[in-house]
Model the fold of this input.
Amino acid sequence: MNRALLKQDAKNAMSAANPHPVLTTLVFMVVSIAVTLVVNIVSGIFGFTGALLDSEAISVFGGFISVIVSLLITLLLSAVQFGYVVYSLKVFKHEDTGINELFAYFPMLLKIIGLTLWMELFIMLWSCLCIIPGIIAGLRYSQAFFILAENPDKGIRECVNESKELMSGRLWEFFVLQLSFILWLLLTMVTCGLAGLYVQPYMQITYAGYYLSLKPYDVNDGYNSGYQDGYADGFNANNGLS
Done:
């Protein structure tokens, strides 16, 4: 596939977005960090109280409460993470979107959690056999959230099965696309995460474009219906592969 063209389209979409994806990503990261801080503070309070009162019961109870709080907050955060997926998809399509997109999907929380747990369970089970089957499973399920983003009424298994169909014969292609961001990820590490404000939306919006390229192309509807092989060499939007 023509990864350079796909990435350029993602960059163009980022430039056209208002507000810029860097700002939306900053809000997303702040929310994620705040969630981590809340969990750590709750754990610290109970741990400190237990140590101060020299009470093992309080320490155990505190640990239990910390786990529950951590789980609940993490589950709530999954709705925000899904909102970021929808946001990235809309940015690539050049549709109106913004920071509010991150917080618009709490009504779908149960389905989002269900899809997350389903995917993680099967990826974990495949990983128990060997790391490679786990990676393959992750690649096969990689489009499920994009599918749910465009089709909120679809069931969990339906999203997973459709993702597997879209990725049939394309696992290596998508894996190479992910590897192509390795230098950007290294830059993020070197800058202690600061570069992630640009790298994260760049990657996510590129993946959104890749998802659209897996779907049948509609000349009249354009990005809304995707475009099969849209980044294959020799592709012409009006005539398909030339």
